[in-house]
């Protein structure tokens, strides 16, 4: 056990006796200590192997793209990656896919729906892109049992207010299926990123169950405002508060206190496997928030790591 608490490389102190897991190996015991049956991770990525290789090639050039090195920690073949999740005690996860160009979402959906149906722990997911076919394939994915959608505004380079997405947003709002939306400026700004742009989608579709990926990084305050104003808006923890992200998108110092009004709408996300640090660091970051405000504490931790994402994914 590390005296300072948290995973290797973390600066988080142990507060109120709440400490993160010391390493990935320590995660299962740590989860059991919280009385949880496992973790539910609402934000992971699985892709057809050759597409994933291309994504990893992109991260290899992160120094050029992001101005920061991004060595992928869990760069293994698919069975090994699934084994890592299992060994971490992740009992359910959303394997998210997203297109970067037209004509791609529909076949990604076919792959992701099948992967979710046939992979232990995974739920069927889908995605969309502004294109004439979007309404039809979103409806088809919902009929086929998609339990989570991903919309990536920066990678896709599209406007989430595009009229071609109007019907798809309506369908998603009516379905109650959560949509993980990467619409923040971090780590890269896009032509249509920014929470104010996405706020207009929320105004038009107030029933939408939205999970703001990366808690809106770096617009954390705006993400909290959107959650306050829209009861269907959640925040995911993906890469939030870990040492890696604190270097370019630091959390406000009063983050834990500001989570209080939305404490039941924060869900575990990790970006596994595409992260440049151990999975345990994400858990330690969340534990740090739980420990730094006694009004959050263990109940918050249990909600974030399991209960709330399990409810959203329908795998209670
Ligand atoms: Zn992601």
Automatic annotation (TrEMBL):
A Pfam family this chain is assigned to: Amidohydro_2
SUPFAM superfamilies noted in UniProt: Metallo-dependent hydrolases
Keyword Methyltransferase tagged: no
Gene Ontology annotations for the cellular component aspect, listed alphabetically: cytoplasm
Occurrences of domain Amidohydrolase-related (ranges): 40-314
One GO term (biological process): secondary metabolic process
GO molecular function, one term: hydrolase activity
UniProt keyword list: Lyase
Highest taxon above the source species: Bacteria
InterPro entries (UniProt xref): ACMSD (IPR032465), Amidohydro-rel (IPR006680), Metal_Hydrolase (IPR032466)
Name of the molecule in the record: Amidohydrolase-related domain-containing protein
Organism annotation: Actinopolyspora mzabensis
């Amino acid at each position: 056990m590390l005296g300072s608490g948290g995973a290797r490389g973390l600066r988080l102190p142990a507060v109120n006796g709440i400490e993160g897991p010391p390493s990935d190996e320590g995660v299962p015991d740590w989860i059991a200590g919280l009385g949880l049956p496992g973790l539910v991770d609402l934000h992971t990525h699985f892709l057809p192997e050759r597409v994933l290789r291309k994504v990893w090639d992109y991260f290899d050039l992160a120094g050029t793209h992001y101005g920061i090195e991004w060595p992928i920690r869990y760069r293994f073949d698919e069975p090994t990656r699934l084994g890592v999740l299992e060994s971490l005690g992740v009992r359910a996860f959303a394997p998210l896919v997203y297109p970067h160009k037209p004509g791609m979402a529909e076949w990604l959906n076919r792959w992701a729906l099948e992967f979710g149906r046939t992979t232990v722990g995974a739920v069927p997911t889908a995605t969309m892109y502004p294109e004439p076919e979007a309404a039809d394939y979103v409806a088809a994915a919902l009929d086929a049992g998609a339990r989570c959608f991903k919309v990536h505004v920066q990678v896709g380079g599209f406007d989430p207010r595009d009229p071609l997405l109007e019907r798809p947003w309506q369908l998603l709002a009516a379905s109650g299926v959560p949509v993980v939306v990467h619409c923040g400026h971090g780590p890269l700004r896009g032509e249509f990123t920014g929470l104010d742009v996405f706020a207009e989608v929320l105004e038009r579709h107030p029933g939408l169950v939205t999970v703001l990926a990366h808690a809106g990084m770096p617009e954390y305050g705006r993400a909290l405002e959107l959650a306050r104003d829209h009861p269907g808006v959640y925040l995911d923890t993906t890469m939030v508060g870990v040492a890696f992200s604190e270097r370019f998108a630091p959390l406000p110092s009063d983050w834990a206190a500001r989570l209080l009004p939305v404490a039941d709408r924060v869900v575990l996300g990790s970006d596994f496997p595409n992260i440049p640090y151990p999975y345990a660091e994400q858990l330690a970051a969340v534990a740090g928030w739980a420990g730094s405000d006694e009004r959050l504490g263990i109940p918050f931790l249990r909600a974030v790591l399991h209960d709330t994402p399990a409810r959203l994914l329908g795998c209670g």
